[in-house]
Amino acid sequence: MPQAFYARCARAVAQSLLGKRLVRLIDGRRVAGIIVETEAYCDTDERDMACHGDRANNGRPTPRTAIMFGPAGYAYVYFTYGMHWMFNVVTGPTGKANAVLIRALEPVEGIEIMQRHRNGRSFHQLTNGPAKLAQALAIDQSLNGTNLCQPDGVIWIEDTPPIPPEKIRTGPRIGLGKTPEPWLSMPWRYWIDGNPFVSK
DNA sequence: ATGTTGATTGGCT
DNA sequence: GCCAATCAACATT
């Protein structure tokens, strides 16, 4: 997708990403899945206490969150719980910490490679969660700050026919812990209705 | 320098 | 449903 696709508010991008194809090149081979679940963190100008870029350091950039404050169309990859990687796409205007977390994929290409990275788990368990898809696609710190619009890159998102609006569901984001209201309950999680790879 | 916690997962009850 | 795993980032001292 072109940079202009990402340079919109996070909630618009999060919805538009549903149905698109996330492609990762591993040893020259395509490993890809359809995006079926996303979450928006920080819309263009609003506060969002669940967002790393808002919560840490009084909303100023830190070494970890600097990528989020940069231009749209780059990967924000971070490590959590001492063992998991999370893959986000940076959205919105430069200077604002906006991003969309990719929470689940429907596997479509390179399934054997995904299975190898996922320690032989079943097809259904390959990419039905944010840390699972990161592991399946071999996403780690080395991809933090990657330009997703780069012609010769190793990870990018391809266009597909849009999902009909009536197939898009929304609800509160997952795993926000002690994030205060109202952000805890804001319905900024999006998924494709009925898709079996949605995480919850 | 030290303490707390997390945008999760998988195993066990 | 409950909880351990495992550690970097961040807040506090």
Keywords:
200 residues, 8-stranded antiparallel sheet, single chain, 6 helices, 3-methyladenine DNA Glycosylase, Chain A, alpha+beta, DNA-binding
Shape descriptor:
globular
User: What is the CATH third-level topology name?
Assistant: 3-methyladenine DNA Glycosylase, Chain A
Q: Tally the helices.
A: 6
Return the string of H and E elements: HHEEHHEEEHHEEE
Which class in CATH terms?
Alpha Beta
CATH superfamily: Methylpurine-DNA glycosylase (MPG)
* Residues in helix, %: 10-25%
pLDDT averaged over residues: 96
Q: Report the C-alpha radius of gyration, rounded.
A: 16 Å
Number of strands: 8
Low-pLDDT residue spans = none
Separation of the first and last Cα atoms: 27 Å
Question: How many structural domains does the protein architecture include?
Answer: 1
The largest sheet is:
8 strands, antiparallel
| Structural class designation | alpha+beta
Strand content: 25-35%
CATH arch. level architecture? Roll
Tell me what you see in this structure:
Helix content is 17%, strand content 28%. By secondary structure, the chain is of the alpha+beta class. The protein has one domain: 3-methyladenine DNA Glycosylase, Chain A (Roll), CATH 3.10.300. Strands 1, 2, 3, 4, 5, 6, 7 and 8 form an 8-stranded antiparallel sheet that branches. The protein is globular, with a radius of gyration of 16 Å. It starts with a helix and ends in an 8-residue tail after the last strand. 46% of the residues are buried. The model has no long low-confidence stretch (mean pLDDT 96). The chain binds a DNA duplex (13 and 13 nucleotides) through β3, β4 and α6.
